[in-house]
């Protein structure tokens, strides 16, 4: 599978749920990541999404986010698991 990515233009942080809705079935790289008291990601500013983890690294796209102004970095794996996709198709066929 060829690596594909997209640079995103978000300026404000989004919640994890908002990111999931926008970038379902993608890998998302966040800056200014926000965490809860248990260390779980709660949000951040999405700056890159891709079809594989670190898509675009061959183009050095992450270098531009390597400064203090971008705070903590994080990543979300929002890929759908094949078994879940199959179950959802079955559910829709039998609805």
Describe what you observe in this structure.
This protein has one domain (5-93). The model has no long low-confidence stretch (mean pLDDT 91). The protein has two helices and five strands; from the N terminus they run E-E-H-E-E-E-H. By secondary structure, it is of the alpha+beta class. The chain is 20% helix and 29% strand. Strands 1, 2, 3, 4 and 5 form a five-stranded antiparallel beta sheet that branches. The radius of gyration is 15 Å and the shape is globular. The protein has helices spanning 16-22, 82-93, and strands at residues 5-7, 14-15, 27-35, 41-50, 74-77.
Give the structure's gist in a few sentences.
This protein has 95 residues and is α+β, with helices and mostly antiparallel strands. The chain has one domain (5-93). It is 20% helix and 29% strand.
Number of separate domains:
1
Radius of gyration (Å): 15 Å
Strand content is 25-35%
Order of helices and strands: EEHEEEH
- First CA to last CA: what distance? 33 Å
Mean pLDDT: 91
* Helix/strand/pairing category: alpha+beta
Question: Which descriptors apply to this entry?
Answer:
five-stranded antiparallel beta sheet, 95 residues, globular, alpha+beta
